[in-house]
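Risk register update: the risk of archive-format incompatibility is retired. Evidence:
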Amino acid sequence: MQKKVLALHDLSGFGRSSLVPIIAVISAGGHQCVPLPTAVFSTHTAIPGWVTTDLTDSMQGTIDQYEELALRFEAIYAGFLGSADQIDSVGEAAKRLKKADGVTLIDPVMGDNGKVYDTYTPEMCTRMRELCAIADIITPNTTEAAILLDRDPYSKPGSVEEAWEWLHALHERYGAQVVLTGLDFAEGRVGSGCLSESGGALSLHRRIDRYYPGTGDLFASAMLSELLNGAKLEDACELAGEYVKDCIAYTMEQQTDPMHGVQFEKVLPKLIDGTYRRELRERPLRHK
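Archived output:
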């Protein structure tokens, strides 16, 4: 039976972030992505002049209707949240709509590059910690991991050993499977680390020196899709990292404005036809 993912994220019309790539990537994995928008934006917020409509008031009613319809989801997946009320709604969705053997994936979108987003007050950061405590999987970048661990947001792992220390600290504090993104301690390489009860791995890929918004959404949705298809966490992270790297490389070749996001669409066939799975079987993971 086709698996269902309830995706609680904002919908940005232009710029290829949030629900736009998430719906596409999860669908490419063969799953049904059911969006529950937290807000609608004309563009992502890095493009000046955006306008937005907050949808907090409709979230609880949607959850109520889905429960009445006896809908249950293999995954509850939440990202950027705009208020404490929205955090409460994610918790309600996880409690009431997740299947008994399902997973709650929390991407604790709070900041990047050592800076906390302006919309995230100390109260919101505290509430996000509470949400991570009920998650089955969390996917912070290094800035968000520092916030979750009450460390300096500008700090980040500077070696293999420090990456493992951060992963274990997050796992011990939140009791969830941990995927730590944005690891860049190795010259010319960037990637992620993961840790679960059964083990983990660091997965580093060729670094492409260009920033695009939305790559975190691509990574987390590709990783989740592979997990739902039965992959191990370390394999799902390796595959997701390769997909994001290829999307960035293709977009650079097109020489488009970075704020327009990565052209993930042309690379989706490699997710659909199993190219990445075949390639993954042919090379070992590093730093297990």
